[in-house]
Amino acid sequence: MLGYFNPQAPMIEEQQLTPQDYNQLVLRLNDMIKACEQISDPRLKEDIFDLLKALDVMHREALRRIIVVIENHAPQIIPLLAQDAVIETILLLYEFMPQPAPEPPPMPASNSPFIPLSHVKLNPLLKTAPD
To answer: CB neighbours of 51 closer than 8 A, spacing ≥ 6?
Structure first.
């Protein structure tokens, strides 16, 4: 809990979530959002999602400002941030990092020297021949 009400309290407690606790929290949040999507009362559902959107905007703007300060005063630590799985998750969720490229499907076992077309990624910048 943040220590806003007690000037003697540290701003952030030292306790940290374990990776397993963090993953459980993310899964729980996902389950709660899915449950909110099933709410039949349209007004309540709209109010809940308006609340979530407002919290998203508030956190996104604060995080954006933190990133700008880091970029302007200590850009060398930006690559270090993504080495922490929790920070990386938030940076990805708030789109401050590019999404990692999906891994290609595993190659089927074969003695053939040919690469299956399903494993060939086409360059979208190349133009196809006219029809």
So the answer is: none
Residue 127 to residues 122, 123, 124: CA-CA distances in angstroms?
10, 9, 8
Listed by start position, the domains of the chain span: 42-99
> Is the model's pTM score more than 0.70?
no
Nearest to 57 by CA among 4, 94, 99: 94
Backbone angles phi, psi at 125, to 5 degrees: -80, -20
Burial class (CB in 10 A: 0-12, 13-18, 19+), 88: middle
Which amino acid type is present at position 98? P
pLDDT < 50: residue spans in the chain? 1-5, 126, 131
